[in-house]
Specification:
single chain, 560 residues, alpha/beta, 6-stranded parallel beta sheet, 4-stranded mixed beta sheet
Length: 560
């Protein structure tokens, strides 16, 4: 009966040992387990990579089975290897089913890697999700179906406030003008206009008079500046630099196009071709694929690349079925020629006539689409601040109090502009049935706390959390609530030395004070690193540990 690790909760429930006896029992179990499962651990990773062997620290971390476990895994120490080893051990040796384990990570890339190894290769049938996927699942299980809003859509939504709503309230306009005057070339004359559009037209006419002899130089400088943000001449935000090149090429050659416009023949499933290009009656659809023409890529795993290629074929079939014309470009062509050279050839071959436009037309389009130049930096700051309001769960009253107690004039002015913008943003989310990523987590947690959840008969016994150093308070509340509901163990894996997302709401103290936050926990360190040489580790470690809040550890490497 006792030939297993006994957690604190189980010991309290069964009243088996005092504190010292419990510790001695578990240490003895781990010692026996290292011998008993030596061969198992030696070959645990064979299907994925037979060259990988679990070291002693990793094996101890896998055998340790407290209710709350923190595994501190230094850079290059085999964090993912340990996580996969832990999950496989639970299934192979502890009688846990794959669907009783939920593995969480922050980035889709990490989730894709874990999913491929756990489920595609090892066939373990484990739930692997991002935090936002989990939040979305919880909401949908309560018939709350909202459309996620990404940063691009969020920016455009806030831009509507600046263009349509701000000038309706002269007090709000005055506050905004005062704040913007710190950072952009707005002036008192803005108060005379009824919209940013009118004000911008006036400013553009003044600009043209002053630079008309240097239009090309000015145009090139604006295009170059926009390209840093993957923003086209027509002001779309593109998903890649290559798509940006395509968009600008089409405009500069007088071709009308729409970016990601809904395909006219789609039915149940929404299909958004990359570019819909028109010239008179001639319409063609352009799909750009971020892989080589020969089907290779360094950005995708084997399975992800196969899925990508499958989607290419599906798109080709859609156009064949509906009799529409589709052309394809790639990141790299077999003949080595540049992307735009191939694009030009494809367009001409399909009956399009390229008509390069003049500098005055370029200037006109740039200025027409540059209306947000006065407030672009403000909105990016506002988006970040709104995210912080939600991460801190601030009410409007608390925001008012913040305005009242703030002594710095510029900060107070910013906060005064934020309140009406934030209220407009929240109302717009509701009207459009949108939800942002912060609310996705917060509202999911609220549903769980109110006992409003339906996990399709799920019975999670383990939460395995990757990159735990990036945990934020709302995400912590979500996993802690989930753990309490299912009475499941938490295994958190990460490295406080690699915590770099405090700007995005992460709170490294939730990692460094894991025991205090959970009430009790077992904290283990994996200190052998296989990525970097000892000398580099020593220099980096000495530097990082100057911050007294970081957890002290010494990493070891056989590389020099």
């Amino acid at each position: 009966m006792l030939d297993r690790y006994i957690s604190v909760k189980e010991n309290l429930r069964l009243n088996l040992f005092d504190d010292k006896q419990l510790k001695d029992h578990n240490l003895n179990f781990i010692k026996k387990g290292l011998i008993k499962y030596q061969d198992y651990f030696d070959h645990l990773y064979d299907e994925i990579n037979p060259n990988v062997s679990l070291d002693l620290n990793q094996r101890i971390a896998i055998l340790t089975d407290e209710n709350y476990n923190l595994i501190i895994a230094g850079a290059g120490s085999g964090k993912t290897t340990t996580m996969i080893g832990k999950i496989r051990y639970l299934i192979d040796k502890c009688g846990i089913k794959g669907d009783e384990i939920l593995a969480l990570s922050f980035a889709r890339k990490n989730v894709s890697e874990l999913d491929e190894k756990l489920n595609k290769i090892l066939k373990l049938n484990v739930d692997v999700k991002t935090f936002h996927q989990l939040g979305k699942n919880i909401l949908e299980s309560n018939n709350i179906k909202k459309r996620p809003i990404d940063d691009g859509k969020k920016y455009n939504l806030l831009k509507k406030y600046m263009q349509k709503e701000l000038f309706k309230n002269k007090d709000d306009l005055k506050n905004m003008m005062t704040f913007l005057s710190y950072y952009s070339n707005v002036d008192e004359s803005m108060m005379k206009f009824n919209s940013f559009e009118e004000y911008h037209k006036y400013k553009s006419e003044c600009l043209f008079k002053s630079i008309k002899d240097n239009l090309k130089e000015y145009n090139n400088s604006v295009i170059k500046k926009r390209s840093k943000f993957r923003r086209s001449i027509q002001s779309e935000y593109l998903k890649s630099n290559e798509e940006l090149k395509i968009a600008n090429f089409l405009f500069l050659n007088g071709l009308e196009y729409e970016y990601e416009q809904r395909y006219i023949y789609d039915n149940d499933k929404i299909y958004l071709p990359d570019f819909t290009i028109k010239q008179g009656e001639n319409i063609i659809y352009l799909e750009h694929f971020g892989i080589s023409q020969n089907g290779s890529s360094n950005l995708y795993s084997f399975n992800a690349l196969n899925k990508y290629m499958h989607n290419i074929n599906i798109k080709k079939q859609i156009h064949e079925r509906n009799g529409t014309k589709m052309i394809v470009t790639y990141s790299k062509f077999n003949d080595g020629r540049p992307l735009l050279s191939h694009l030009e050839e494809l367009l001409i071959a399909n009956g399009f006539i390229l008509k390069p436009i003049n500098e005055k037309e370029i200037f006109k389009k740039l200025t027409e689409t540059d209306i947000d130049s006065y407030y672009y930096h403000y909105l990016t700051l506002a988006m970040e601040f709104i995210s912080k309001i939600k991460l801190k769960n601030l009410s409007i009253d608390e925001l008012d109090n913040l305005i009242n107690i703030t002594g710095d004039i510029r900060t107070k002015q910013f906060l005064m502009t934020i309140k009406p913008l934030y209220l407009y943003y929240q109302q717009s989310l509701e009207r459009g049935n949108f939800i942002d990523f912060e609310d996705m987590i917060v509202k999911a947690t609220l549903l769980l706390k109110n006992n409003q959840f339906n996990f399709d008969n799920k019975n999670y016994k383990y939460l395995i959390i990757d990159e735990y150093q990036d945990i934020s308070k709302p995400r912590f509340d979500l996993i802690k609530t989930l753990s309490d509901i299912f009475s499941c163990n938490i295994v958190a894996v990460g490295d406080d030395w690699q915590s770099i997302f405090s700007f995005a709401g992460s709170n490294v103290e939730l990692f460094t004070k894991f025991k205090e936050e959970m009430g009790y926990a077992e904290v283990l360190k994996i200190t052998n690193t296989y990525r970097n040489c000892q000398e580099l580790i020593d220099v980096a470690g000495e530097f990082v540990q100057r911050d007294e809040n970081n957890i002290k550890k010494t990493l070891h490497s056989n590389k020099h």
